[in-house]
Amino acid sequence: MQVISFMAIKGGVGKTTMAFQFAKFLQTQDQKVLMIDLDAQKSLTGTFENEHFNFSGKPTIADVLEKPSSGLIETQVQDNIAIIPSTSNLEEVADRLASKPNRELLLFMWFVKNAQELNQKYDYIIIDLPPAWNLLSKNGVAVADKIISPMEPSRFGYESHTKVLQSVGTLQDEVVDPVSGKSYITANVFFLGNRIKHNTNSSHEFLSALKHIDNVIGVIPEKELVNASMLAKEGILEYATQNDKLHEQEPFLKLLSDVFSEIQKQGND
Q1: CATH number at residue 20
Q2: Number of domains in the chain
Q3: Which residues form the AAA domain (predicted)?
C-alpha cells in the first residue's frame, strides 16, 4: 500500500484536480483507492457529491482526528474508490486539537491502529492537503510515503518548491521518536509542473527554472479537457471517451498516463 499526499502552499495550482485524476487513473487499473480530504474547502469531497448523494450524516476526517483510536469509517463512493470526506468546520476542529500532545501525529496514530485492515483493503491512500502549512497539512505529511506538490507558471509557483521542502524538513526535525531518535516523517517529495501554456513567456521561463529543481516528476500542459472533466466530476479518460475526444486528445492522455505512472514508481526503490 502506498500513501501519497498532494501538497501545495497556495491554492489554485491543481492540487485537488491531480489528486482526483490520479485516483481515477488508478481506478482504471483496478487498484483499490482510499481518498482522504484534509482540506476544509471540501473540493475533493465535492467531486463525489451530486443531486442524489452527499455526505450529510457520514463520518468525516474530523472524527478520525478527534478520536485516532476509531476504526475505519470511510464511505464507498465508486467502484474501487472510497473516501473519508472533509467537513466545513475542519479548521475549527484543528484549532481545538492544537493543544493536544502529538498533535501532528493524530492521523499517524489512526493509521497505526488500522494498519492491517488498511493494507488488506487498499492499494493506495491519496490525501488532499489544505493549501497552507498548518496542523492538518502536518498530519497528512506525517503518514505519507511520498508527497506530490504541483507548481504553476509564476514566480511564486517556482519559489513554492523551496517552501514545501523547508516545511517538510522542519517537521522532519521536530517529530522524532524519543527512543530511536528517528523521525516519523519519511516521505519523499516530488514536484509536478502543472497548467503549462506553451505560448506564454511565463511558462517558458517556468520550464527553464524547473530544470534546476530536483525531483520534478513531470510537466502537464494547460488543457480545457482537464477543466471540463472536473466540472463533469469524471476522470479525464472517462470524459474523453464519452465525448468522442479520445483520438484528438490521444497525445495528452498518453502524457498524463506517463506522469501518473511515474508517480506510482518514484520512491519505491
Answers
A1: 3.40.50.300
A2: 1
A3: 1-174
For the record, the C-alpha cell of 101 comes out as 500532545
pLDDT at 9: 85
- Distance in angstroms between the alpha carbons of the first and the last residue of the chain: 14
Residues of the chain with pLDDT under 70: 155-158, 267-269
Q: Which three cell numbers stand for residue 70?
A: 476509531
22: Cα separation from own chain's centroid: 9
Please give, one letter per residue, the 3-state secondary structure of 218-230.
EEEECCHHHHHHH
Listing DSSP states for the chain in one string gives: -EEEEE--SSSSSSHHHHHHHHHHHHHHTT--EEEEE--TT-HHHHTT-BTTB--TTS--HHHHHH-TT-----EEEETTEEEE---TTHHHHHHHHTTSTTGGGHHHHHHHHTHHHHHHH-SEEEEE--SS-SHHHHHHHHT-SEEEEEE-SSHHHHHHHHHHHHHHHHHHHHSB-TTT--BS---EEEEEEEEE-TTSHHHHHHHHHHTTSTTEEEEEE--HHHHHHHHTT--HHHHHHHTT-TTTTHHHHHHHHHHHHHHHHTT--
Residue 57: count of CB within 10 angstroms of its CB:
5
Looking at residue 153, its pLDDT comes to 82
Domain that holds residue 77: 2-265
- Per residue in 157-171, pLDDT (tens digit) is 667 888 999 999 999
